Amino acid sequence: MKRFFLIIAFLTSVNAQDITTLEPIGTVVRVEKTEQSVTLHCRDNSQVRLTILAPDLIRVRAAFGKSIPTKDHSWAIAKENWPAPRWNLNETPDSITITTDELEVAVRRSPLLVEFRDARTHQLLNADERPMSYDAHGRLASMMFDPKAGTFVAASKKLGFDEHFYGLGEKAARLDKRRSSFVNWNSDTPGYTDKTDPIYQTIPFYIGLQRGIAYGIFFDNSYRSYFDFGKSSQQRAWFGAEGGEMNYYFFHGPSIKKILGRYADLTGHMQLPPLWALGNQQSRWSYYPDTMVEEVVSEYRKRDLPLDVVYLDIDYMNGYRVFTFDKTRFPDPKGLTDKLARQGVKVVTIVDPGVKHQPNEKGYHAFDDGLEKNFFQRRRNGDLFVPRVWPGDSVFVDFTLPDARRWWGDLHRFYTDNGIAGIWNDMNEPSDFVDQTGKNQLDVVSYDEGEKSTHAKNRNTFALLMARATYEGLERLQPDRRPYVITRAAYAGIQRYSTMWTGDTNSTWEALALNIPMFTSLGLSGEPFVGSDIGGFIGRGNGELLVRSYQVGFLAPFCRNHKQIDGYDQEPWRFGKYYEDIIRKYLKLRYALLPFLYTTLEEAHRTGVPLFRPLLLNYQNDPNTYNLDDQFMIGDDLLLAPILKPDVTRRLVYLPAGVWYDYWTGKQYTGGTMISVDAPLDVAPMFVRGGAIIPVGPMLNYVGEKPSDTIGFVIYPDEAGAASGDLYEDDGVSPAYKSGAFRRTSFSSRRTARGFTVSIGAAQGTYNPGPRKFNFAVKAAGRTGRGVSAVDNGKSREVQLK
Ligand code: MIG
């Protein structure tokens, strides 16, 4: 027993850093104002700079015991130049106050404490619990051993008695992060479970919510970082890192949606992937040879299961050499992709960062060429850094070098020439079999804009830069197509370049239940295009688990079944017809809902508000949603409460205030309460918000199979008989939507004495979808009414429904 406690104590002490031992920043002795910032000079020669980027966005940057360096660079930031908003400065002997139209930032001079208030209500949003601090005396353990890293830096905030915490990217944790702590250090963690930390990604951004009022904090520091939301002490929520700068952005809400919009402005908006990325995808480690890939696709078609994408995992390569195909397994890759294209199926290949390095091998162009150009990472002593990954001894590209990124991107011509439609970046933490914790990488140097910094700083941004190289390469190679990239590891800003999946999950019920808080938290962290291996990656699984897993994943942006090399096969038909029939029903429903999903995806691109949402995002003033993570919403309108346990066929569902319709039975409910619903294996409880108009497309085996010449709209009236909705469309493949080639149509409907009147708004945008018609039907009294159709002519008009 004693021993057991010792082990626990040891494990916690590794992650728990006691920030109360740190040196606080000195008091303010002088204030300097520029057009957009205020610099505070401190007694200990430290400096703090507050930059006013927007009325609701303030940057706080501090240097301890020295001046703030002129060099200012982050790979995460997409927008550096913000026009100065209106603001003013007020100084008193005790404090300095910056006021914008939305925020009041008050800094106490001694001790130096920063406080954020709502400028209109003067309500306190967030306040320092102690001054920002640093490890002047080397008190905290660090694994970095990097003289350039500097010291541990930390900021500590007062913990609200009823404050909730959301976001922080990809964490194997519940939705509300209150009373938990986390570490960010990109790690390859196969088979992770609830509380495994860290895992693959680093998104040091979180949202605090108190009494319905939200703020955001983005701590843009790529060193190993720590977030503690009231775990080590109920007095404070603190964040810190083992080096680099105290550098954070404060976002004013009060709405979470507004914060997500600003976060997207700052770190980049997700670009729309091709529409087929919303199609159903199938993967396996690994399908080979080519005939097996064809067999998988033909099973899908034979069984009337929709499919858009099939994946080639590492065994397609010649000895795991990236940018090659194994000649025996895939003698004619172009022939294969052509053949599959005729069946409407795209091929995505995995590309790992490890470039095989076999000392006596000549003629592997990716290695030879990269070595000659000196693009590979080296250790501080100048030796090539040789991690061991799938190809055996390998090298990694220094993706901080602009020329290396370009070179790597251009190498993808090999794939595009072979008809490969997208690239899957794996192992990019970067994983290293020699030492999974990254210790083997600490003296690896990257160019880093001339700073020549080590992996202590660059490990967490490695995947971001690799995805960037890939995305930009695909953009150059195929300028008229949207790149499709999917990544495992990431740093903030990844949404500009890549979609993601949650890595090596287990085929267990616990892992399935984690899907929901993980997807919703990623959405609250600026990463909207998320998903998990459907059925789970590791382990055996069974038909029931697979079906329930589809009932979560069928509405996730990324919908892909994938399995590890020695796992039991789990394509939809593997457990028999009974399960396959249910899975078919859900996959078909996904395809029918594609117009709705795509409209919601475009919203995520434009506004930063994700598709896959926790209820609290739509119902921020309803405390019943603050810790609710076994239900989710898609956009504003669909609410899902899937079954996440074996042998369960009934569950409680929380419906927020308003009218709700059971999607399957049409039964109407009044929300603001918990209901109990039946959920036999073929039912994922799903509800539609009263007030929604849901666009529904034709039955498809794959995206683009038929023209969308008829689009259905199902109207779900609210208590007043009103409803509204949007339809977003574009060509689905090219970047032309960025220059106006889209079509957005708005619809609204109201109950009248004669039935329902639907108003179709004038179409916006220049995209022409071709001749087609709209069908409208109203859902009421448990059934769908008779439909009325109207030719779509892009003009504003009204249609009457009985
Ligand atoms: O060390 O490429 O997460 O999806 O099938 C395992 C083989 C490497 C991990 C990925 C998984 C993939 C597997 N990869």
Shape: globular
Ligand roster = ligand MIG
Proportion of residues in extended strands: 25-35%
Helix content: 10-25%
Write up this protein.
The chain has 13 helices and 51 strands. Helices cover 19% and strands 30% of the residues. Bound molecules: ligand MIG.
Give me a quick take on this structure:
With 802 residues, the protein is α+β, with helices and mostly antiparallel strands. Helix content is 19%, strand content 30%.
List the SSEs and their pairings.
Blueprint: H1 2-15, E1 23-24, E2 28-33, E3 37-42, E4 47-54, E5 57-63, E6 87-91, E7 95-100, E8 103-108, E9 113-118, E10 124-134, E11 153-158, E12 163-167, E13 181-184, E14 201-202, E15 205-210, E16 213-219, E17 225-229, E18 236-241, E19 246-252, H2 256-267, E20 281-282, H3 290-302, E21 309-312, H4 333-342, E22 346-351, E23 355-356, H5 365-372, E24 378-379, E25 388-389, E26 392-395, H6 402-411, H7 413-417, E27 422-425, E28 444-446, E29 453-454, H8 455-477, E30 485-487, E31 490-491, E32 499-500, H9 509-523, E33 533-534, H10 543-553, E34 560-561, H11 577-592, H12 594-607, E35 612-613, H13 615-618, E36 632-634, E37 638-640, E38 650-655, E39 659-662, E40 668-670, E41 673-678, E42 686-689, E43 692-696, E44 710-716, E45 723-730, E46 742-752, E47 755-760, E48 773-780, E49 783-784, E50 788-791, E51 797-801
Parallel strand pairs: 14-31, 20-21, 20-34, 21-22, 22-27, 27-30, 30-32, 33-34, 44-48
Antiparallel strand pairs: 1-10, 2-3, 3-4, 4-5, 5-19, 6-7, 7-8, 8-9, 9-10, 10-11, 11-18, 12-15, 13-17, 15-16, 16-19, 17-18, 23-26, 24-28, 25-26, 28-29, 35-36, 36-37, 37-42, 38-41, 39-40, 39-42, 43-44, 45-46, 46-47, 47-51, 48-49, 48-50
Helix pairs in contact: 6-8, 9-10, 10-11
Bound molecules: ligand MIG.
